[in-house]
Amino acid sequence: MQLYPATQSEKVGFNLLDKRSMDPIGYKQINKNTGKEVTRDNIVRGFEYEKGKYVVMTDAEIRAANPEQTQTVDILAFVDAPDISFLSLDTPYYLAPDRKGEKVYALLRDALKDTGKVGIASVVLHNKQHLAALIPVGPALALNTLRWGDEVRDFSEFKFPDEDTKKAGVTPKELDMAKRLIDDMSDSWDPAKYHDTFRDDILAMVEKKVKQGKVAEVMKVDEGGEEKASADILDLSELLKRSLKKGGTTTKRGAASSSSATDDDSDGEETARPARKTATRRKRA
């Protein structure tokens, strides 16, 4: 089978330029001890077996270390798809059948679909062995590399609220309110609804400067006003209060409509009307 990356980068890329001549500034391989540039033909791969001591290995030697695994996707087992944690997923690829391999390809794809299973496989990519999940996706088989078990940090390294709702201080009423909010904001997954707005803004600015003939000018930008956050951090409790009416349910997508909260005179508890999500903001690092 042939392996192809299933993702493509749409990130905004910038080249480093010499502002005096607008010439690109290239990337240099620098010797960390001498500070001098090293030519490509003098660069080799080394495995550090002791601090500061290396064994030099060529690409051919690395491939020869396990030639069978570099050429194949070896299926080790089949497991239920929900058993694989999102934390283990790494990089997706598409698997395409070799010539005369279409029937076997279709057989495996359809069998995985019908059983709800995914294949667990071993594969070597870029001179590194990976664990991978073989997943049917529409007409294709996808191979998603997985992180090894010791690469996913254990929960015990962090302080999380207790999984027991009561010990975490969550009341049944609050939990019910959160479930209703989730229900009101539930939607079908459509990745086309979401896109990189930062990239759009940068491309619009580039287009504007090109049209104005100011491609080589560094323009002064007013940086005053409110600082934009690198991410919006959802204040769930405030969103719950503002999004759900006491004693009733909101309309679909009601959590996104604008209104303000009022006080309930009967029992002193706050009754909320649907409102836009509120978020605390964090400075961009």
UniProtKB/TrEMBL annotation:
Gene3D superfamilies: 2.40.290.10. Residues 35-163 form the Ku domain. CDD domains: KU_like (cd00789). Keywords: DNA-binding. Residues 246-285 are annotated as: Disordered. GO terms for biological process: double-strand break repair via nonhomologous end joining. The keyword Magnesium does not apply. Residues 274-285 have a biased composition (Basic residues). Coiled coil: none annotated. One of its GO terms (molecular function) is double-stranded DNA binding. SMART domains: Ku78. It holds the Pfam family Ku. The keyword DNA-binding applies. PANTHER family: NON-HOMOLOGOUS END JOINING PROTEIN KU. This is Ku domain protein. It comes from Candidatus Burkholderia verschuerenii.
